[in-house]
Amino acid sequence: MQNLVQIACVACLAIATAAAAQPPASQPSAGGTPDKIPFDIPYGTAIGVDAAKKLLSIAEAEAKRRDWKMNIAVVDPNGDLLAFERMDGAQYASIEVSQRKASTSARFRRETRVFYNQFEAGHAYIGTLEPGLVASPGGFPLIEGGKVVGAIGCSGGTGDQDAAVCKVAADTIK
Question: Which residue from 18, 64, 107, 111 has the least number of CB within 10 angstroms?
Fold first, then answer.
């Protein structure tokens, strides 16, 4: 029995030594090496509550025009909620999704569709970036004077429906 244990230990040592002697596999690309950081938009002072409420009204009007029931969230540049509205009949599950879309968009300074596209292209690492990240269309950063002042997120329809409603409101910020 002792001989079998010794043989097993020698075999394990031989396998470990052989594995250590293998040259390292080449690393997969992590998106290339661009000259500039993508989405390098500076953060600005958060929009106020009155401006956030106005964005809710604009998005709601667009959703009503299309007869879509939406949850709409506006957040500050850190992703913290400033204003929220759940339209009558909007699904409950989309309350948190709209807030997470807005937060994802603000914190990463980009439209959430970017993450959706990367995830669909097989870049599974997207799910490791931040708990609560939403890789679905419908979140837009609010850019005023070249700075991120917040974000808006919509949820309740398809990703493209959510994006269409939020884009109308986001485009009013200059």
Answer: 18
Task: Write out the H or E segment, with its range, that includes residue 103.
Answer: helix 93-108
pLDDT in tens, 50-78: 999 999 999 999 999 999 999 999 999 99
The structure tokens listed for 38 are 């993508």
CA distance 35 to 73: 34
CB atoms within 10 A of CB 15: 10
Residue 83 backbone dihedrals phi, psi, to 5 degrees:
-155, 150
The residue written with tokens 């394990």 in the block is 12
Secondary-structure class of domain 49-170 per CATH:
alpha beta
The pair of three-digit structure tokens given for residue 113, joined into one six-digit string: 């569709």
Parallel, antiparallel or unpaired: strands 139-144 and 81-86? unpaired
Q: What is the DSSP letter of 156?
A: S
Q: Do 120 and 37 contact (CB within 8 A), yes or no?
A: no
What is the pTM (predicted TM-score) of this model?
A: 0.80
CA distance 91 to 97: 10
